[in-house]
Design a protein that fits this description.
Helix content is 39%, strand content 15%. It has 246 residues and is an alpha/beta fold. An eight-stranded parallel barrel has the order 1-2-3-4-5-6-7-8, surrounded by six helices. The longest helix is centred in the first third of the chain and has 17 residues. Bound molecules: 1,3-dihydroxyacetonephosphate. The site of 1,3-dihydroxyacetonephosphate (13P) has 14 residues, from strand 8.
């Protein structure tokens, strides 16, 4: 299966720079060969222009979050239905920055993931331990609990993707040892087996993936792609990661 390289732009980019980045990626994918599946997750208001910029390519576009309700009085939130209506193919839910900044619970993340599936979107469900949890030896328990509580009912391996993102590795330049990533991915795969229908759940690694370490990370058995933050903000770096796919 093709590796999925997903760029989470977070709260970065303005109209001009966002369009420039998307156009630069579109240009490369038109002119260069890659085995990877590529997705970008721009800030919500940038979604329509980014969709236009990549419309004649295989790059798919998604939202960074959605609400668990389909519509209603939820000021500032975005529904999965609206994302789908705009032309998005997927959405990220339960990113650690959402869990931390907005006190999102596993139950809410699960509701968001189910709303995404109901809207016909693919959903990337993020899990990962904090440094304190890791230091306390709780990382496996924490991630198991997040998997049990956050994965949607009714998901299949075609609609649900998990991203393992250790919180302490995000934006820090630090990553787990390669064998530790492999161990966590197999723990997630085993735990999710009863919750997501089908064989071959895709599990992405996220946290300080760069062109310099992508090759070794993407070769770890059980790593089916990467969820990339900082290095997805320049076409050169993001392309460097895409080109690192085996
Ligand atoms: P960085 O690649 O900047 O560490 O961010 C990872 C991330 O949070 C992607 O969702």
């Amino acid at each position: 299966m093709a590796k999925l390289i997903a760029g989470n732009w977070k709260m970065n980019g303005l109209l001009g720079s966002g369009k420039d980045l998307a156009q630069a990626l579109a240009k490369r994918i038109r002119s260069m060969e890659t085995n990877a599946e590529i997705a970008v997750f721009p800030p919500g208001p940038l979604i329509p222009p980014i969709l236009r910029a990549v419309s004649d390519t295989s790059i798919w576009v998604g939202g960074q979050d959605c609400h668990w309700n389909g519509a209603g009085a939820h000021t500032g939130d975005v529904s999965a239905q609206l994302l789908a209506d705009l032309g998005c193919s997927g959405v990220i839910v339960g990113h650690s920055e959402r869990r931390a900044d907005h006190a999102e619970t596993d139950g809410q993340v699960k509701g968001k993931a189910e709303a995404a599936l109901a809207a016909g979107l693919k959903v990337i469900v993020c899990v990962g331990e904090t440094e304190a949890e890791r230091d306390a030896g709780q990382m496996e328990t924490v991630v198991r609990t997040q998997i049990d509580g956050s994965l949607p009912s009714g998901g299949t391996v075609d609609t649900v993707i998990v991203a393992y993102e250790p919180v302490w590795a995000i934006g820090t330049g630090r990553t787990p040892y390669l064998d530790e990533i492999g161990v966590m991915h197999s723990l997630i795969r085993n735990r999710a087996a009863g919750l997501v229908l089908g064989e071959g759940l895709r599990i992405l690694y996220g946290g300080s993936v760069k062109p310099t370490n992508a090759k070794e990370i993407l070769r770890i058995p059980g790593v089916d792609g990467a969820l990339v933050g900082g290095a997805s903000l320049t076409a050169d770096d993001f392309w460097g990661i895409i080109e690192s796919c085996p």
